[in-house]
Amino acid sequence: CRGIGGGAGWPGGHVDVSDVGSIFEEMFGGGGPSPFTTARRAGPRRGRDVEHEIDVSFLTAALGGHEHLHMRTGGEARRIEVKIPAGIESGAKLRVRGRGEPAGPGGTAGDLLITVNVGSHPLVRREGLDLLVDVPLTIAEAALGATVRVPLLKGSVEIKVPPGASSGQKLRVRERGIADERGRQGDFLAVIQIVGPKTLSPRARELLESLADELQDPRDSGPWVRPGGDSTP
Q1: What are the helix (H) ranges across the chain?
Q2: CA separation for the pair 171, 169 (Å, rounded)
Q3: How far apart are alpha carbons 151 and 12 in whole angstroms?
Q4: Arithmetic mean of pLDDT over the chain
Q5: 224 DSSP 8-state letter
Q6: What secondary structure letter does DSSP report for 231?
């Protein structure tokens, strides 16, 4: 091997290549890596995240529960239990750590990312944590007032409908909606829907016709067009 010599601090003669790194450390004070230092080995590889969708019932999303997935990751069949938090909404994502694709030796598995699709309910719908249910009333119940029992997610509750109720009017029962895992509590709202009879007995028709002239016309108080083209002020 040809010697490196001539300059101060560089002894003549043969130089061992393995000592070059320590020579540079002495020259530059050991403050940085030597240009002869080999690259460090990469750390443990992490497995790939896996995305999946899950369908849950309206009740499970509102009250919370558990679902089980049967899926294959990394060529291996798995049965995975997923906790569904109370109050979750459709489109929300859940992360199950370590249930994605496995990594190589010494590596860590990726995560399982689950998109939640919430089903509908035949009677109840939701707005955030509030629950809404349509309450059908007869014309007589709406005019005179009534007490009706309506279903909740758990049990039922009695609602007092005041006289003169109108379709679309909402009657609120506080803190009987959805309770999520953060301690927030929604309300329950009964939405009045007045349903007119499709058929009338002769007696019922006679009574309604006799009352028609006595009942106040609700269009008298708004900008409605009267027969003949005139409108209210």
Answers
A1: 20-28, 58-63, 139-144, 202-212
A2: 7
A3: 97
A4: 82
A5: P
A6: B
How far apart CA 150 and CA 144 sit, in angstroms, is 19
Give the closest residue to 155 by CA, choosing from 126, 184, 176, 125: 176
Query: What mean pLDDT comes out for the span 8-27?
Result: 49
Q: What is the pTM of this model?
A: 0.69
> What would the pLDDT profile of 206-227 be if each residue is shown by its tens digit?
888 888 777 777 777 666 665 5
Q: Number of H helices and number of E strands within the chain?
A: 4, 11
Please state, in angstroms and rounded to a whole number, the distance separating the CA atoms of residues 3 and 48.
52
pLDDT, mean of residues 107-114: 93
Which stretches of the chain are assigned E, i.e. beta strand?
50-56, 65-73, 76-84, 93-96, 112-118, 124-127, 130-137, 146-151, 156-161, 170-173, 188-194
Tokens 């809404």 locate to 132
3-state secondary structure of 126: strand
What share of the chain in percent tops pLDDT 90? Answer: 56
pLDDT at residue 65, rounded to an integer: 96
What is the DSSP code string of 132-145? EEEEEE-HHHHHH-
* Rounded-to-integer distance, Cα 29 and Cα 148, Å: 87
Specify the amino acid at residue 19: D
Q: What is the mean pLDDT of residues 52-76?
A: 91
Quick one: pLDDT at residue 10?
Answer: 44
